[in-house]
Amino acid sequence: MTVPGTGTPWLRRFHAGPGARLTVVLFPHAGGTANFYREWSAHLPEEYALVVVQYPGRETRFGEPLPERLEDLAEGAAAALEGHLTGPYALFGHSMGSLVAYETARRLAGGPLGPPVRLFASARRAPGLEGPPSGIHLLDDNALVAVIEKLGGTPPGLLDDPDLRSLVLPAVRGDYRLIDAYRPAVPEPLDVPVTALAGADDPSVTPAEVDRWGGFTTRGHVLEVLPGDHFFPVRRRDEVLRILTRDLAP
């Protein structure tokens, strides 16, 4: 039921109840790390195991090259999960992580694990509905920091430190490049129920746009709109976890 503590660098395990019946696999946002979800571990019931995907080029994988395609992240995550996961599982992605989770679900559906029991897509337009490329990855450092601060990703002034910028910005820039390049010609619906989550005041995507994830499932979907900006899962963590456990209840 649980992911072993050693092996693949793609996965980090923060929570594994001894009687866990289901594993929740979490995917971070652009520039995000596995530690974004660390605090969730103490607030999940024991019936859930918690595993976070760690993308290359950050934290424990800092020295690794950034991927060339968003699909590369999905392929790496899917291979790691097939090698280490047993039993039922759900996928939760925030922002860019929603797209990576969707692509991972596509790859796992036809494999030995089968499809997830549910996909949670947070603060992101559905695949193929991104609109024209944003060009954010082409901005200079100051402009890129302004984008991050506008979304609520970091407190104002935190990224004024040059050393911190050198650690954070390459992954952020690389991930926005992946988002701009990700334009699937014919996105495929999943045979998986979807919970879409949106921040009421998110400057990057509206609740109506997030709700269009309903067109990418054959099993129905629900939309949850919570107070807050793009990073509402941080400020509204307990509410997000309530929705998660509600929709994963037996």
Structure overview:
- By secondary structure, this protein is an alpha/beta fold.
- 32% of the residues lie in helices and 16% in strands.
- It is built from 7 helices and 7 strands.
- The protein has helices spanning 70-84, 96-109, 141-151, 162-181, 207-210, 232-235, 237-247, and strands at 11-16, 22-27, 48-53, 89-94, 119-122, 194-199, 221-226.
- The protein has a 7-stranded mixed β-sheet with strand order 1-3-2-4-5-6-7, with helices on both faces.
- β4 (89-94), α2 and β5 form a beta-alpha-beta unit.
- α1 (70-84) crosses α2.
- It starts with 10 loop residues before the first strand and ends with a helix.
- The relative contact order is 0.15.
- The mean pLDDT is 92.
Summarize the structure.
The protein is an alpha/beta fold and 250 residues long. It has seven helices and seven strands.
Topology:
Elements lengths: L10 E6 L5 E6 L20 E6 L16 H15 L4 E6 L1 H14 L9 E4 L18 H11 L10 H20 L12 E6 L7 H4 L10 E6 L5 H4 L1 H11 L3
Parallel strand pairs: 2-3, 2-4, 4-5, 5-6, 6-7
Antiparallel strand pairs: 1-3
Helix pairs in contact: 1-2
Which features does this protein show?
7 helices; about 250 residues; 7-stranded mixed sheet; alpha/beta; single chain; 7 strands
Number of helices: 7
**For the report, how would you describe the main beta sheet?**
7 strands, mixed
Nearest-integer average pLDDT: 92
Percent helix: 25-40%
